[in-house]
Amino acid sequence: MLVARSATLANGAGRVGRADGCTLISMTNWAVPEHSRTQVRRAGGVIGRGESDAAEIEEARAKLSNYRSAHGYPLLSVAMHVRDKAIAIAPDAVVARRLKRLPTILDKLTRQPHMNVTTMQDLGGCRVIVAGVGEVYAIVEALQSARPRTKIIRSKDYIAEPQQTGYRGVHLVYEYGAIKMAYRGLKIEVQVRSELQHAWATAVETMDLFSGSRLKYNEAEPALLRYFAVVGSLMAAREDTPPVVGAEGSVAELRAELIELERRHGVTHLLGGYSAVVTHLTALPKSDRRKTMVLKLWRNIRQIGVSVFETQAEAEGHLALIEAVNDDNVDAVLISVSRVGQIQSAYPNYFANTDAFVVFVLEEIAAV
Asked: Is the pTM of this model over 0.70?
């Protein structure tokens, strides 16, 4: 991949086509690491211990925020490579990228005080969503067969071996190794999922986002955890893949259990309620091709907003202002997709869009 050494785009954050067919990346406004990895690791320790004064904590947050933002360029580099491979196999694939939310990083450090931030592999993440499992594996094979300078250093197949929660998908971890020395060694995680696997993950993230549960981390009421494990196994059965460990019953047994769990907990009604009260933002035209945006959710009033930016730096600055307020009722994430109109497909949990999950559950119940 060739990299432009000067500003070649007004927005400084996207692809530049050339007559010879090569792809350039404009380098304007991309954050670079401003602190050594030892300093970043120590900043994580300050947050994890929670014993420092306000000034030290604020300084540590700033260092962590910069380190997170520095993953933006490697993330774009990986996402462009992944998108080329994915679209060649599945033209309708949704490919999106996002930087991990700073509050999520801080929460993880608080729960795991000895964690080394510099070893986290998902500060920058790329998500690929395709119709079925066959396309998932075809894309994964194409990525593993490619030989870019930014290489895959780790992979995990959560379809063959689902997580205990019921989560499924394939994860690939890239380590940046191209010509921009400042980013060498930074890691980017790629998740490849089928639409059904994505529907499950979206429902879990929506529950966590709106209700304050921690299903994603296997921390919630046991019956609710069981609900999503059962649904995960039923989805696996439909896709002819291995079931969730502990939920290996027959389809008939799993459906019967799902009926009882739904009767007791009304998960589909909860999800439907979240969807009903979210105010969908419709002002942005689907044809808008600006690619970098900040998605903001106000939990207490069930509203969302989308701010779209010409440059990565502008988006990161806006996100930093939101995060500095430290309001538990406000959630924000910086994301990028090929078109603004795809944000609901790539990040439906922020819109409480769990229709696909609810439809699946109701179909399974109706089949009894």
From this structure: yes
